[in-house]
Amino acid sequence: MSKPKPLQILTANHLTRGDVIYWSGHKWSNDPASALLFCSEERAKEALNQVPHAIAVGPYLAPAEAIDGKARPLHFREIFRSLGPSNYRHGKQQEARHV
What we know:
Layout: E1 7-14, E2 20-23, E3 28-29, H1 41-50, E4 56-67, E5 70-73, H2 76-82, H3 92-95
Antiparallel strand pairs: 1-2, 1-4, 2-3, 4-5
């Protein structure tokens, strides 16, 4: 029996700020928990091709899970990206509870 595919979120970097951003279904957000979760590969790819790219650089799909109805990236790279720069703990890194 094959393993079920994980949910996916759409992520990118903000054009002028460089922050990681997530597609919430109607706008880009800095909060990964507000990301729209895609259950099907087809819908995820459709969204990737249709979201506004005016402020989004390099949008792509990333595996995620739902915890209490909120999106959370699954892969270490995506969790790391959501915390911001890694040179020292500040801002989002200071507030992070899952790393």
